[in-house]
Amino acid sequence: MSHIIYILNSKKLNRYYIGYTTNLDLGFEFHKNAAPNKFTANASDWTLVLNFYCDNKTQALSIEQHIKNMKSKIYIENLLKHPEIIDKLLTRYKSDCQI
Q: What is the pTM for the complete model shown?
């Protein structure tokens, strides 16, 4: 099973969305057809700007939470510009992965 962190961008909202899925196509489709009460329903122009694989669910959820806790557009843009940050996150949260 794949464990994928993904980041979507909406130019309309000028916002990013960070998520976790085991099926990237299904996850992206979910956001494109989001229910009206979901955050991603506020725009129809979501594009996938980054995705990367984790070793397991624990690692993926830890990294997803780390990125969300940063609450920073600049941090996300640095992830896009500097892939070595992703490598550091994967290494940092590897010890959390006992599943």
A: 0.88
The type of residue at 28 is F
Name the phi and psi angles at 41, rounded to 5. Answer: -75, -10
Contact 86, 79 (CB under 8 A): yes
**Which strand (E) or helix (H) includes residue 3?**
strand 3-10
Distance separating alpha carbons of residues 54 and 60, to the nearest angstrom: 5
pLDDT digits (tens, 9 = 90+) for 72-82: 999 999 999 99
Whole-angstrom distance, CA of residue 69 vs CA of residue 78 = 15
pLDDT of residue 99: 44
The CATH class of the 3-96 domain is alpha beta
- Describe the chain by its helix, strand, coil percentages, rounded to 5: 50, 25, 30
Q: What are the residue boundaries of the structural domains of the chain, listed by start? A: 3-96
